[in-house]
Structure formats: structure tokens, C-alpha cells
Amino acid sequence: MAAQDPAFHLHAGDLCYADSSGLGLPADTYDPRTWDQFLAQTEPISASVPWMASLGNHDMEALYSPNGYGGQLARWDFPDNGPVRSEGVYSFIYGNVGVISLDPNDVSFEIPANYGYTGGAQTKWLDNRLKWLRDQDDVDFIVVFFHHCAYSTTTAHASEGGVRNQWVPLFDKYGVDLVINGHNHIYERADVLKGGKSTKTPIGATVHPATDGTTYVTAGAAGRSLYAFAVPDSYAGHVNDVDEVPSFVWASGAVKVAENVTWSRVRYTGYSFLAVDVKPATPGRTTTLTLRAVTEAGAEIDRVVIAREAGGRSRGHLDDSAA
């Protein structure tokens, strides 16, 4: 990671696994010494590179309040521009990119310990913040990162229906460019999606989100035990396209609903991370956001270019009557 010389690092939840059970319950197994190990491991990079984190299910340490987030609040200084009583929910702008961190524990059907704890405030804030970012002439791209996956096909957690129900319509409405998730310990990229419909997006493709839709990536293979897919891996130099992938989505009541999906385009079950490079441009010219999946050995296994007109008014933002 250090070799990429990043301006900042995004960590999409499950920071250290001090709560190894991950259910957000008082009976969860909890070892606070894990925090010391994690901070020592990450210090060589985090000492010089801002480490921007969101919260996952293993971050609900029920020993603490509010909502089990005391461990994070004692060790992290999150931006405070999110809604009241919504820890780890914030936004910032870097260059021509707006970045939003969300807490999916608030909407998760799979692990409902904190379900609805913001009383809808987080989703309302997200709507307003996306609109505000899209109205900024100097913000071309919007990246949203959070833990539970909108679109993933692992045999472990797969996709979160609460995210699809509450947030994906807003991503469509405001033309979000890139969504980065964790939770599933693999790398997976979906075909670009808009309105629940996918458009095939092979490795090396250029995406125009104003018309094509949002790119969804699961980047959860940075260090914990790895998960599996029901079909073979498919990545650069090892492409195995399949017509359908059997999977499931979590519904209310922690119920698994089976689905066969056509959007799983890139799958990799080794350790990896996501690198994102942005090339700004003067208004009216094309600005690009390039995402690359990189293995622990430094090999590139996926690449997609997201392109927009810099300072453009056509952002894929639907008005309320069309949403």
C-alpha cells in the first residue's frame, strides 16, 4: 500500500476485530488488546497517511455505549459533519472528489443489533449531502464507502437488502460514481448498475456514470481470513465469465433470499486492496477516476476508468419527480 503513495486511505469497517463475534450483543467475545495490535500494525502507514474509517458489524462492541462505538470514539477522531448521534458518518472533499462514509449497521437486516438507531436521520442526511455535493461545480466524482455490501456474491455474507432498499435509490438519484464496501473477505466488482439493471463492464472498460450508473466494489481482503464464491474466480489474466452466479440477499428478519445474478464481473479470493487514481481536468474536458485492484504481491487484477466532464452540469442527478 505504501508503494502506491496514497493521499489518504479508506477503511470500510471491521477495523480490528476486538469484538470477534460481530453480532453487537453483550454476549459477544471481546478482547480490547486487539486494538493495540491493530494500531501497531497500521502505524507505519497511518503515521503519515490519513486513515479514514467507517464502521462495520465487528465495531459494535456492546460493552460500550452509545451503540457499542465507545472503542472507536476513544481511538479515532472522525469528522463531525454527519447527522447527530451517527458515529462514523461524515463526508469530506479532496480535489474534485466528494467522499462519504456511512454506518450500515443502521440499516442491516443481516445483523440487526443497531438497526434503525438513527431513526432515519442518517438516510435523510445522505440524501441532503449527495444533493449538496452534486451542486458543487468543483466536485466531479462522488465516492461512498461503508461496510455491508450492496452487491456481492460470496457464500458468506453476500448482499445486504437494507442497503439496497434505503441507499441504492439515492445512489441512482444523484449519480454516485463509486461505492466501496467491505464485509466479504474477497475482491469483487459488479457490472455498472443503475435502477437495478446492469451493463456488462469488463476489465479495462471506461464507464460514463452519468448514463451508465454506479460502480460497486467489494474490497474486503486486506488481512482477515478469506471467503469463497460459488463459481470460479475471474480476474485479469484469468477471466472466467459466467452467465449467472447463484447468491442471496438478506431480507428483513435476517432471512436469506436466493437470487441468481448476472452482474458479478470480477472475483478474486486472494489478499488484495483497491487503489484509486484521479486525473483532474479543466471545465469542459474529461476528468477520470481509475480504480485498480492490486494483490499483496503487487499484481493488478482489475482496472476500470470512470469518466466525467469536469465541471459538467450533466451529473446523472434526477429531479424529485423522476426519482
Automatic annotation (TrEMBL):
Domain Calcineurin-like phosphoesterase: 5-187
InterPro entries (UniProt xref): Calcineurin-like_PHP, Metallo-depent_PP-like, PAPs-like
GO molecular function, one term: acid phosphatase activity
This protein's record includes keyword Transcription regulation: no
Top-level taxonomic group: Bacteria
Keyword Signal: yes
Keywords assigned: Signal
SUPFAM superfamilies associated with the record: Metallo-dependent phosphatases
Name of the molecule in the record: Calcineurin-like phosphoesterase domain-containing protein
Organism from which the protein derives: Paractinoplanes toevensis
